[in-house]
Amino acid sequence: MSHMQLHVEGIGLWSPQLADFAALCARLGGDMPAAAGAPAAALLPANERRRAPESVRLAVEVAGQALAMSGRDPGTLACVFASAHGDQATTDAICATLARTPAELSPTRFHHSVHNAPAGYWTIATGCRAPSSAVCAGTRSFAAALLEVSTQALAEQRPVLLVCSDIAGQGPLLEMTGCDRPFGCALLLAPDAGATTRARLRLELPADHASSTPPPATLADVAAGNPAAAALPLLARLAEAGGRCRLGLAAALDLLIDVEPAA
Amino acid sequence: MMTPMRPLAVSACTVSSALGCGLQAQHDALRHGRGGLRPNDFGSAPRLGWIGRVADVEADALPAALAGWDCRNHRLAWLGLRQDGFLDRVQAARVRYGARRVALLLGTSTASIGATEEAYRRLDGAGRFPADLRRPALHAPDSLSAFVAAALALEGPSLTISTACSSSAKVFASAARLLALGLADAAVVGGVDSLCDSVLFGFNALELISPAACRPFDAARDGISIGEAAGFALLEHADAAPQAPRLLGYGEASDAWHMSSPHPDGQGAELALDAALARAGLDAAQVGYVNLHGTASRQNDAMEAALLARRFPATTRASSTKGFTGHTLGAAGIVEATIALQAIEYGFVPGNLGTVAPDPACGPQFAWQGETRRVDVALSNSFGFGGNNVCLVFGRAP
What we know:
A: 10 helices; 35% helix
């Protein structure tokens, strides 16, 4: 097909500077919203919220924001959780333990280390029995996950929740990931327009390859230091009057996205 | 509500595991009931349980052009890619369709974390990674698909799926969607997971590792044996390879139950089965063979035996092959997909190796020993941590 058409029903966002999508809109409108508190992850039951690592709380926070905006039932909503680095804090802790006293590895740490831990916590908390996935593609994780979600929404004719988030790294691993601050975002995409449609997306894989669209200059502090922030050029177009952006999908392949606000 | 999918050709595949390198080694081992497990001789002490280790991974260096990717997981991937003429088949697809029209979707649970573990064992005086391991691309969960994209010179959509033990089954579903929408003409799918301390000590911490070779569906089963493997398949539209076996359907579902144990009634597994059969346009009674997830954990096997007994007639044959290969985690989906495809190709149902006294919950569907019989439709179950369930349906070319 020449292009794919999808409808945005929900948008979630969390960074230390921006607590949600409304804060992004305010920031782009020239305001300076108050700094965000820790991600609340209100959809997790209290005992799960205490046990869940930061990576899960961040992903659940932005997923919950997008879900609330859409009004969808999470029990039947397919979801894809993307993260370039997974839970870096858990990886650091596990590798440090394995280097010293491997037999003392904690079982909780181990099950938090799987890349699909956020998907697991989310589906358990929301009673979701629909397909769930966990994916990664390095610095292109957001664009690659957006393609994955779009194909699932269109091929299976169902709404799909996309979450892309990374927490800050720590320990010796941080020098390798270079990801030193948290960022998360979510989009709820549907194949058909509906009452809660906020914008229409047209996606295509253009024949040419060019540089990715940079984030707006006013968001330079939000965009740095986290691969999930590669979503910002698209989120900014959703926050403003729409427009086109290009995101790298593979080494020589791009995703071209046209955003048109709903009437 | 679910419409059948257009079948895809599995025009090439390959597998390397503890049973040996390549499809023939796997078939020979399954045919002769010769398992690949051995006492754990890998990684840090204490070395617990038995493992399914691929011989000579360490001895097999990467070509110079790929040397920057060197680590044990990528050596295993490279070893796997070179079996069964798979490199040539991918090259032919690249020439036929163009490098941008061949997608790459690979599953892994731990990617090259073995290299990260090693870096932490050898931190320098300043607490930094040793100089030879300061290679950021190795210490990322997408390292497998990044390496294989480089090794195969593919330029299409590329993704690593990491849903624990269902990872390299889910890649078939994602590839089917890309091809259905015309975003790619072919897809390389598969998965690689290699032995590492993270999984050996992680599953040990969960008290899920058997002290001996695993015994799937045995009444006295006491845990898993971890294995490693690399496997790949090439998917194309059916008209491009009319004689090739088919991917007829896939189903995916979540348990919404627990992070590290399956739903006791197998609700997510059954939803995945229903979706897979619906996409294939088949009834359970038309299935000749089911390759079970069958890890030899108490909970998985109880759930899966009950699901099999309530959904399939006795004419459907079923077995777990983890007694042969061990549980190859993120690679289990592709390994067992190739076993399902071989059941169709050879008319041979592998036995459920390792079982002495079957769990009484097991129905008459179980092939405790290998059976020679025609198989036209074969299923493969893959269930992962976090309640992530996949069922794939393969069939003979019409």
